[in-house]
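Weekly modeling sync, notes
Attendees: S.R. (lead), two postdocs, one rotation student

Agenda item 3: backlog of single-chain predictions. S.R. asked that every request posted to the team notebook include the full sequence so nobody has to chase files. The rotation student volunteered to paste the first one in as an example of the format we agreed on. Action items at the bottom.

Example entry:
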Amino acid sequence: MRGAKPSVQQRANLLLQVADRMEVNLERLAVAENWDNGKPIRETLNADLPLAVDHFRYFAGCLRAQEGSTAEIDETTVAYHFHEPLGVVGQIIP
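Predicted structure, as returned to the notebook:
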């Protein structure tokens, strides 16, 4: 039997903890990335890892600011529908 699902705040906090741990270990992660695929450590430290940290923080914020609706697809999958502006849209009609 599964435990209770974590709350939105708990999930957001988990993503923020991942971001914090990544920041604390930037150099170690950069070396691991270098060993894994040969990417220069400087590039990883200045671009890849800060962007990854930012993504975790961004999605933690998205969890807390959910707007829209959800639909349960199955026991482990939820579809999230939200409305956002598309900007300028053109239409060509014959």
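Discussion: group reviewed the output briefly. Residues 8-81 form one domain.
Action items: rotation student to repeat for the remaining queue; S.R. to check formatting next week.
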